[in-house]
Amino acid sequence: MGSPFPASSSRAGDGRLVVKLSPAGASSLEAMTYQYPLKLISPSPSADQKSVLVFILSYGGGLVGGDSVNLSIDVHEKSKLSLVTQGHTKVFKSPSPDIVTSQTLQVRVDDDASLCLLPDPVQPFESSVYVQTQIFKLAPRASVCFLDWVTQGRSARGEDWSFIRWTGRNEIWQRGDEAIGKDRLLVRDTVVLSSPDSLLLGRPLKETMHKTGVFGTLLLRGHLMKPVGDFFLSEFAALPRIGARDFRSAEDKAQEEAAQSESERWSSNRIQKEKEEGVLWSAANVRGCVIVKFGAKTVEAGRNWIGSMLIREGSVAHHFGSEALMCVQ
Amino acid sequence: MALSTATSDTASITHEIEELEAQLEDARARLKLSQLSTKDGGPTPAILKPSPSSSTHFLFLLSDSALPLGAFAFSSGLESYLAHNPRSSTFSDFLPSSVSSFASTTLPFVLAAHRDPKSLFDLDDQLDAAVICTVGRRASIAQGRALLTVWERSFRSTVSEVPEVQLLREFSTLLRESKGEIPAVSAHLAPLFGAICAIVGLSLRQAAYVFMLSHVKALISAAVRASVFGPFQAQKVLAGERVQHMIELMIDREWNTPVEEAGQSVPVMDLWIGRHELLYSRIFNS
């Protein structure tokens, strides 16, 4: 006699999240399912919460060689979802280079809905093989803010980009409707880091990473995220020129600094810190999305930098609640 | 006497090899054309061009540094790299990073466009979505448009009317009409280069090699103008086995990479190229 329960349709590592607007006008979870090694937790909603908060976790705090996580997310009209993690996503070593650990995220966001994904960075251990694919299919009036970042590994154990391969691909698509027809690719941001490929060219991977300990990409799209995008673009445009010399006398300098507005002072302090902590970044507007790339010597420096930018601008906390920012501060 | 026999033997064998190679190239070209026309369902074109000699001719034209693409205006991040690492920069450190990054992001598009020139529109759009920095996009589009102009004004009249010629006509019409935030086509260099190489009869491998070598030549020429080294050292680097080996390695690495999986292999390169705009003084556009 067979099992009295219906056969489970999902496979190991599969998960599904559906968020919609409740009749009361707040975002709420309609469905949340997951299978080992993936785990999803949503704290019970508070009265004034701005978005549904969900933690993406994995049993044991990491992914073992060969694990495959597939999370699919639907954010329905006018609702909001924030996704966070609890600590670095560790990727453990693979028993052999052809055993790939993978995470796939398929997201659909409807009109006037928005998603904020600000996780902790992925931390690939020595000899790990990892592929991450994040596909966002957005309705024309949807908004997203998401961060994808990777660290050099366990630096305390001397790991310095010591994994075998790390591939991260992020795609933002504009969903087609009756008028437009098929989906249109807006942005495809792919990073392929491979130790064997680097060695073929005669250099270990860590040398090509030029002393960065963390490397990240922030992608922004949609009207809700426009102020954040504009903020990054204008701060980037206002960075001091590289190789310029300061001909001002000490008094002039002090005088000018005293006359700075609060926001100018904030910027110049941040720029000073960027210099000290080896933060390099750039921002660009690509086909209606803003893409920010940054690298820093240490994970903490990178976290402080991206966190301070997002907190300073304020839109993310305003629209999603300050919990959405917990992994970047 | 024995020596001269040997010499004439060598000469005749060399001659024979040349003839056989020419025949092989010719057969390949005909095979390609017939495959293309069967795909279209149309009749085989009456003129079986490009002939092997004309393809060699175009190989030289496309690899010539005098090809007016304006490649001299771009340093592909070298200038920015030098400014960011004032004390620790070396060209031998930058070169492999640049070659790897350029190959991993663009070479799959050259190969795909050469294999199927009809996919040019789609490839151009996909590459446009994948170039995530303003400065890099500007460099790619400026050279792509220049190549399209060279094609229209200079190459097209000498190439027989194969279906792809019409395709490029449609491409440039669409380019003129494209505007707005997300243009239908942008004319990036890599896919156009692949398609044009296919039309003028370069083999897939040749197209990839010329594409990569042109990048190295542009870099080295930029290095000379940025006073990294002199012209003789530049030729030495260019002629060196290391560069040849690197290009071959990159072509092999990307030979089967689908364009969907093309990506940045040296992330700091995006930062250097993206931050080129921040340099106080610049002699290049990228």
List keywords for this structure.
heterodimer, A: alpha/beta, 8-stranded mixed β-sheet, 7-stranded mixed β-sheet, B: 286 residues, mainly alpha
Characterization of the model:
- The complex is a heterodimer of chains A (329) and B (286).
- Chain A has 329 residues and is an alpha/beta fold.
- Helices cover 20% and strands 38% of the residues of chain A.
- Chain B is mostly helical and 286 residues long.
- Helix content of chain B is 68%, strand content 0%.
- The model of chain B is unreliable at 39-48 (pLDDT under 50).
- The interface between A and B is large, with 44 and 42 residues.
- Chain A: Keywords: Chaperone.
- Chain A: Belongs to the UreD family.
Q: Measure the end-to-end span of chain B.
A: 61 Å
Strand tally of chain A, please? 18
Question: Structural class, judged by helices and strands of chain B?
Answer: mainly alpha
Main β-sheet of chain B: number of strands, strand sense, barrel status? none
Q: How large, in whole angstroms, is the Cα Rg of chain A?
A: 21 Å
Q: What is the average of the pLDDT values of chain A?
A: 92
Biggest beta sheet attributes of chain A = 8 strands, mixed
The N- and C-terminal alpha carbons of chain A lie at a distance of: 54 Å
> How many helical elements of chain B?
12
The dominant shape of chain B is: globular
**Share of helical residues of chain B:** 55-70%
Q: Spans of chain B with pLDDT under 50 lasting ≥5 residues?
A: 39-48
Gyration radius of chain B, in Å: 21 Å
